Design the sequence.
């Protein structure tokens, strides 16, 4: 890795980080008072009926935290993030060096304290205060059954339909409902786990080494420090296939709420990616890019989520440009820009969530602030910084130096931007951080449309034909001869997506046109590709084309990805009486197979709190 650049900046001397003082209002824990050195989970999975009650499904065992006191004056209490679905039954403390079995294990008192609707504090009292720099091990015996962090699926909710499945989803603040922890991206630790499963099941985790121990136990170790939200577990009837150089992907059941989750060494991905045409490879590139941006260098709190996602979008599109060319990448970026436009139209540009740096208020679940802004506006800011440098090669070297400088740490925007200006002293001298209209502070703290948009004109060769074709469909008597002269059979998926985005922007179309459109392009109206199915569903609803309403319901029954599910419910509730009925019927039929967060968001769309 390059660590010196034009500014000849050496990474040798570790800089003090702004993030060392960063608060995280989403954590109830005392993560600044103690350093977590290692976490070990020893858990047994039982599949049974939904709980509570004897024999119900759950994970039970122990979580052992290796800790060191950071307070000069010592401490008499430790606070961890937990959740009402975690039932902690015992806590024991062992002082001294880790693994020192001579040290006596003493039971210690603990209690819970309310924190927010998404978690609570687990408070552990020390009978004798621990001194500055003291090391100790805390072992917590606990069980978790039903809850937001551990997702249990019945056999009929899986692809094989034969055996149940369980997985955990940590981002943003759900792992406190999996094990007691410092549930903040501000701190990182290594972890290990011993997982016992029933006969015929396999366990996998986000770890760099794993081994089978006996018929039913799996041991995992992650030797690099990671934030708590990246610790992930899945147990099911898993089959594996070699698809290339080692990068492990776990294709999840259809109800998985995300396109991908960048759990290190084991990315969880939606089965929607299996489109049969390699068209949705961008998601895989995106998740691989998180290995550097997000997993190696992490946002110190969820208000700085753009540091994870803006850089990852930039890296994804750099890789895509090399693999697939600039035209295709600019076309994909244009569809991303359309999503940002759509989001800002719905939320209002001045919505505070449309800042790069979001102020998350106490009590607000960071997941509720999730939107396109950190991805697409973040991408625009990183692109703007590359534009200021003016030399792609130099900026690529800078990105390597940035990762090298901050690897295994969590940072704030100030840490990154100071490093950028030190690396490029000539830009610092020019005062690029305060160019009127493009001030770094404005980028971070002003809501609204990005001040700078990267040039997507290399995509014109693919975008122009799609725009021209969309224009032909807007007239009340479409010129079918001109339409049929356009050979869309040769178009790539993202060209079709871009075309449908344009149709959606121009909808409602004149009467009869959507019916004709669907008949002319069965490749679109009967597509199996999820991105096309989403757009076709939105077009059906915007034009109130009731003959095809069943396709919207079918798509929502086939998968539970948040990014597809919520826009369709918004479109149904913003449509005709028939469309609103469709929304309620579809939700009644699918709620049991959706992730709990997605259920909550759909309920808010169906019956807004302020109505």
Sequence:
């Amino acid at each position: 890795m390059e660590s010196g650049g034009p500014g000849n900046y050496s990474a040798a001397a570790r800089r003090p980080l702004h993030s060392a003082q960063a608060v995280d209002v989403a954590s109830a824990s005392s993560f600044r008072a103690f350093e977590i050195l290692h976490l070990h989970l020893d858990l047994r999975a039982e599949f049974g009926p939904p709980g509570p009650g004897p024999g119900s499904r759950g994970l039970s065992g122990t979580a052992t935290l290796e800790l060191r006191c950071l307070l000069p004056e010592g401490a008499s209490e430790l606070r961890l993030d937990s959740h009402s679905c975690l039932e902690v039954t015992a806590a024991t403390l062992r002082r001294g060096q880790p693994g020192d079995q001579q040290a006596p294990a003493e039971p210690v008192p603990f209690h819970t304290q309310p924190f927010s609707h998404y978690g609570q504090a687990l408070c552990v009292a020390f009978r004798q205060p621990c001194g500055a720099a003291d090391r100790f091990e805390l072992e917590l015996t606990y069980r978790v059954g039903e809850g937001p962090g551990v997702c249990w699926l019945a056999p009929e909710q899986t692809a094989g339909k034969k055996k149940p499945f369980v997985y955990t989803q940590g981002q943003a603040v759900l792992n406190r409902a999996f094990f007691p922890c410092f549930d903040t991206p501000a701190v990182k630790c290594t972890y290990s786990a011993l997982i016992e499963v029933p006969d015929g099941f396999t366990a996998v985790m986000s770890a760099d080494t794993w081994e089978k121990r006996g018929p039913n136990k799996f041991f995992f170790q992650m030797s690099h420090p990671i934030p708590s939200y990246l610790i992930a577990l899945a147990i099911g009837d898993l089959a594996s296939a070699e698809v290339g150089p080692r990068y492990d992907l776990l294709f999840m059941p259809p109800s998985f709420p995300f396109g991908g989750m960048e759990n290190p060494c084991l990315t969880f991905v939606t089965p929607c990616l299996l489109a049969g045409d390699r068209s949705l490879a961008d998601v895989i590139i995106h998740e691989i890019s998180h290995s550097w941006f997000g997993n190696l260098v992490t946002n110190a709190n969820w208000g700085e989520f753009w540091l994870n996602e803006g850089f990852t979008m930039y890296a994804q599109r750099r890789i895509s440009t090399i693999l697939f060319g600039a035209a295709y990448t600019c076309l994909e970026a244009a569809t991303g820009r359309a999503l940002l436009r759509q989001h800002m139209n719905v939320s209002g540009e001045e919505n505070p969530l449309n800042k790069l740096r979001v102020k998350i208020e106490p009590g607000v679940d960071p997941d509720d602030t999730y939107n396109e802004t950190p991805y697409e506006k973040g991408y625009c800011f990183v692109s703007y910084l590359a534009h200021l440098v003016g030399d792609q090669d130099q900026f690529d070297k800078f990105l390597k130096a940035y990762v090298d400088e901050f690897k295994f740490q969590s940072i704030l925007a100030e840490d990154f931007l100071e490093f950028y200006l030190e690396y490029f002293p000539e830009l610092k001298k020019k005062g690029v951080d305060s160019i009127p209209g493009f001030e770094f502070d404005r980028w971070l703290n002003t809501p609204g449309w990005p001040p700078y948009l990267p040039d997507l004109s290399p995509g014109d060769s693919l975008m122009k034909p799609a725009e021209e074709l969309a224009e032909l469909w807007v007239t009340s008597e479409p010129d079918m001869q001109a339409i049929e002269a356009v050979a869309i059979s040769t178009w790539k998926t993202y060209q079709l997506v871009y075309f449908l985005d344009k149709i959606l922007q121009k909808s409602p179309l004149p009467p009869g046109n959507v019916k004709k459109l669907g008949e002319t392009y069965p490749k679109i109206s009967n597509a199996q590709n999820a991105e096309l199915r989403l757009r076709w569903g939105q077009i059906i609803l915007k034009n109130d084309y009731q003959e095809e309403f069943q396709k919207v319901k079918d798509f929502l029954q086939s998968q539970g990805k948040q990014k597809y599910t919520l826009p369709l419910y918004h479109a149904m509730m913003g449509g005709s009486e028939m469309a609103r009925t469709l929304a309620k019927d579809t939700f009644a039929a699918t709620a049991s197979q959706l992730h709990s967060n997605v259920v909550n968001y759909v309920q808010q769309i169906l019956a807004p709190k302020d109505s």
The two ends are 55 Å apart (CA to CA). The domain at 297-445 is CATH 1.10.390.10 (Neutral Protease; domain 2). The first helix runs from residue 281 to 289.
